[in-house]
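Session log. Operator J.P. requested a structure for one protein chain; no other inputs attached. Running the standard single-chain path with token output.
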Amino acid sequence: MNDLSKFDPWLSDDGPAALVIREHLMPVEGADGVLFPATFASGDNFPGGYNIDGEPTGKNVCLVDSVGSQANRIEPMFAKEKYSHLVPQVVVKAGEKDVNMLSAGHRAGDALVRCSELQKELQDAFKAVLQGDSLPLAKIAPTSLVFGVWDSRDTQAKLPRLVSSTIRAFDVRKLTRSAQFVPAVEYIDQKLLEDTDDKKTRDAYAERGFIHVPASGSHGGVIASGGVRRDAKLSLAALRLLSAGKDQKKTLALRRYVLGLALAAFTYPPSGYLRQGCNLVIDPDKPRDFVEVRNDGQRMPAKFTHDEALAFATAAAKAFGVGESRSVDFDTKRAMTDVKGEPAEGEKPGKKIKK
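Structure written below.
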């Protein structure tokens, strides 16, 4: 079996449903340390703050890092020197800032790339997806096939995430914290600033650090008595839905290429630093699960390393032919037309701008 056919059993119709990794984490301070989950804005009857399902002080599950956040942390790995040869490096120049598409939140469906000279090319690629051909998109934005994409502003083409990862804490106790800012000098008492009862002025004093400012009862993190766990999945069943139209040879090359990218991302050791107050490490007392899940529910140990995944991804990328790397400019005129929902001059309504 050559390197390219190494994982072909996973691409067959009777192949496994998924690969699954479960690893137990803990704060760097220790298993009973305080960690700070993600906070979310209020809406849809959610009051805002930590996303905790269940009893606030009993059996519950707290979302520490969402699937979208995890994807946005992992995807930029492909811009690093060690992995950059695997995918086209597409950079959009927006004013004085250069943004790699790998860092765009909506990937190939992001406004940043939609409002550039790539617009028509991406539109055609999404239309091809709707016709069962993902090859054109793989040549421009292959990580959109790995982490999922939705062209919600145009063709409505949607591809599922093949690689997903979420971090949750269990049985958490929510904490609060309070603080008091004390200025270096009593500016008002020392007659350096005028005393005032005007709220706008007092608020300005506070904002600029001239007066005492209390902060009481704000989010203070959680203690997870039930532990913290990262669950990651690579959906092989979803990957097998990708095709290059009816061309079986090209379809196999496409699936091998996307599988290589997915395996590299799936086994990539993510950073444990998520945000201030949330630096997580592996819990050495709890074993890591890495299994191949069959369609009949059987779970078998998966035995390959990240280096092996990278070697396969490199071979598959070479055989597939990685798309062209390029730098394009953000187009303000396209953006304004996009905002207004108007077609370009000479085009029929409902179509996007053609350069």
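Operator note: DSSP finds eleven helices and 19 strands in the chain.
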